[in-house]
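To assess whether the prediction recovers the assembly geometry, we first specified each molecular entity separately, as shown.
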Amino acid sequence: MRKEYLLTPGPTPLPPQISLAMAKPIIHHRTPQFQAILKEVSSGLKWVFQTANDVFIISSSGTGAMEAAVINLLSAGDIALVVQGGKFGERWTEIAKAYGINTEIIDVEWGKAVSPQEIGKRLKANPQIKAVFVTLCETSTGVDNDIQAIAAVVKETPAVLVVDAISGLGAVDIKTDAWGVDVVVAGSQKGLMLPPGLGFISVGPKAWKLVEASKGGRYYLDLRKAKKAADKNDTPFTSSITLIDALNEALKIMQKDGLEYIFKRHKIMADATRAASGALGLELFAPTAASDAVSAVKVPAGLDGEKLVKTMRDTYGVTIAGGQAELKGKIFRIAHMGYIAESDIITGLACLEKVLTQMGYKFTLGAGVSAAEEIFLKKENN
Amino acid sequence: MRKEYLLTPGPTPLPPQISLAMAKPIIHHRTPQFQAILKEVSSGLKWVFQTANDVFIISSSGTGAMEAAVINLLSAGDIALVVQGGKFGERWTEIAKAYGINTEIIDVEWGKAVSPQEIGKRLKANPQIKAVFVTLCETSTGVDNDIQAIAAVVKETPAVLVVDAISGLGAVDIKTDAWGVDVVVAGSQKGLMLPPGLGFISVGPKAWKLVEASKGGRYYLDLRKAKKAADKNDTPFTSSITLIDALNEALKIMQKDGLEYIFKRHKIMADATRAASGALGLELFAPTAASDAVSAVKVPAGLDGEKLVKTMRDTYGVTIAGGQAELKGKIFRIAHMGYIAESDIITGLACLEKVLTQMGYKFTLGAGVSAAEEIFLKKENN
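The predicted structure of the complete assembly is given in tokenized form:
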């Protein structure tokens, strides 16, 4: 017998009532019963996306929704400006290239946020740029980009701003309409506390003009079809009924808590993780732009980072994430997005301390956990 | 309190152990634990597809897998031969057109199967045709096409055969390798007894050459990426973990039963439904090519077909399907695919008889149910 803990940046653990919702008998998707669910979900999505724009649901992973953004807004030969500061920034470039879209790239050092001024400079230098693609929370490095400042720059230009908020939505703030973000993409298995399988995309009026003008081929991911169906409270193809029903539960739970509380909760979990890392003598990978959704921590010199993650998972049942691509073995990532409570952070940190000790790293046992406890206690007194 | 019955051609009811599998805590997809599941699923899929080819899993509806077939095999300007004998045959054409692929169309009267000889003639007349797109079970009309005979014709030509088996797989026989079917597409919410959300596609060597040669843009649905990942027991993008875990359960249940038994079971359910229709004085819409997966029955003259379906569902909790597109109000469809037992058919028929009576249609009450009982009883004596 052992208990398993999931502290990864997608999938994230599911509240038991959401898990149980998925065990309910399935209903047909072209019925008044399912339309009622879709209607609630649609309004719940607008709430969590902080937008009055349509939020379309796609049966796909988050990448499918990213692709929907690219191919609906742009056609081959168009120019896109892509911010690349990690694996998921690079994904925007890969998708654009697969469709013959020309990319101008802002290469940001991994672990840093992009400079909004740099985006402004590039847009000024090339007025042909039709869309800017950035990442809210760059999951691979634990960095949050300053979307509010970026949006302020982009909205003064003819370009539209597209934000990959897959790891960020429901964990850190993104005020789609208030900040003027044209397109926001998200996925189900992060802050929304669902299994993977649903992608989401909100599209504002400035972006919708591009959707209508784009000449690229599209069918399954055609947002014009999605819009036509959504206007009739439907989806263009068979909905992922079970996941959408579970999404409805998740959105209700979130609405009860409120966005302000949700973001504050994520910040406290992140603060505790960051304080613990410091107390253990570990360095954050992204100290200047650390995300409240996931913390990336440098593996101490001389220690095998992959072994650390593997031992925590395979021997002790605590799954955190290692580094990806060039960061493989060099960082580990503790996610605190979605259904993560103080108890999960404490458990994760205690397990980290246990394995670090076994691997020969020197520190005061309990220092990380007690630093986290202090943060949690301070919150109670505020 | 009322019991709900689902007799629609997708989604289909889920066995309780599959529903419960979806309520299990989620696990991470890049772990040995999930890789073990993917490995079992991969071998189970090959078994149900009756192929040694790779069967790729896509997080999408069945349409996403159809699109994967089109865009991976063909590029703009290529020529495809499409068999159109219903709504889902038309979908092949719509997808092809969305990508600038030229289509030659065999328009089959709705309710009839395509003539394999006609396919041969068209291929001979135009040797530029690269691929033939057909439907195994045309859900909209309740017709099964003769894939074995079609494959025998197509395999003598340079063209590849692509079969939409979304409604057929796991309900009626399709011997992918023995018959020589190059590409088979399926979905999760039919014979596989799962919620919608997964698409599948098997690709044989003749078709794989086209996948490598196609010049069209693709990313999320790129089968080259799927192949690269599958070779490492992985998926290119975040897997729909919960659905894949449930798929593993479903495939185990099916393997225990065996394909021969499964197809026989579907045939008996179909025979019972057809016998009942006859006993009620109702005509099958597709008497010469009736599918064992779904029965399409003509609405008696003067009766409102939409009201019939709506009353059965909204008043009595038995959900069957109406007609689509040009068949709206003119047929109703009782599906007997997946987790459908004698009890479901009896319940569906009794409810049909009740509502037909209420709507003023004249017949001997119980005639349909007793015709079905006879079929079920005969089976016990064989």
